[in-house]
Hints:
This protein is mostly helical. The protein has a domain at 23-76. 77% of the residues lie in helices and 0% in strands. The protein has helices at 2-15, 24-48, 52-77, 89-103. It is elongated. The chain crosses the membrane at residues 25-47, 54-73.
Amino acid sequence: MEHTESKNDDLLAQFLTPGSSRYPLWIALLHGAFAALLCVFLGLLWMTGGNFHIFVLIGIEVCLWASVQWFLYELQKAPLPASEQPNSINAINATENMESKKDQ
């Protein structure tokens, strides 16, 4: 049981780190959440017989989903910061600093 909880904590910590919005798993979960919300609204639309308020909520949800899609598209076009690039000078310096501390 403890092993499962630590995996969940690791997953949550991964999503809360800067730059986590570039992970494919996070993007898939985001699309799943929007799709589930749309299904709920469509179910409510059917149950209420076409209530105007549900149409408005569906419109808001679709616009929010589209704006998040646009943001993720623009984020993918943007270059990674130097601290997140694996071959950057900062990463090399950090590795050298860690190795020098181990030697001491």
